[in-house]
Design a protein that fits this description.
This protein is mainly alpha-helical. It has a two-stranded antiparallel ribbon with strand order 1-2. The longest helix has 13 residues.
Length: 111
């Protein structure tokens, strides 16, 4: 694996279907696993948990476990993770600006 290039590095950190959305939704205030599951219903709980763990390992989010029964878990962005939000926002804006074209090519390629 070549990690000498910034694009390779960010790809390694953000590779995963739901990671950018998870970061975005955590930044928007959705911090509990159940809230994130509701925001991304197409993702299985197992996959979301794996991707949250990877984001935590890459120091983009932190996990806080409250000592109550049943355990309460909340995620929040680290200062490092917060630096990605403008990048994710720019990618989302590009997607919005090109939505019609992207939908055409994606559905064409899916046939």
């Amino acid at each position: 694996m070549n990690l000498n290039c910034g694009l390779d590095l960010i790809g390694e950190v953000l590779y995963g279907k739901w990671k950018m959305r998870l970061l975005w939704f955590i930044e928007q205030g959705n911090k509990r696993p159940s809230e994130l599951q509701r925001k991304i219903p197409d993702a299985s709980r197992r996959v979301l948990n794996m991707q949250l763990k990877e984001l935590e390992g890459h120091e983009l989010i932190t996990k806080k476990i409250y000592p109550v029964v049943p355990p309460k878990v909340e995620y929040s962005l680290t200062d490092f993770g917060k630096t990605l939000i403008p990048v994710i926002g720019a990618i989302g804006e590009w997607g919005d600006m090109n939505a019609e074209r992207l939908q055409k090519v994606i559905t064409r390629d899916a046939r």
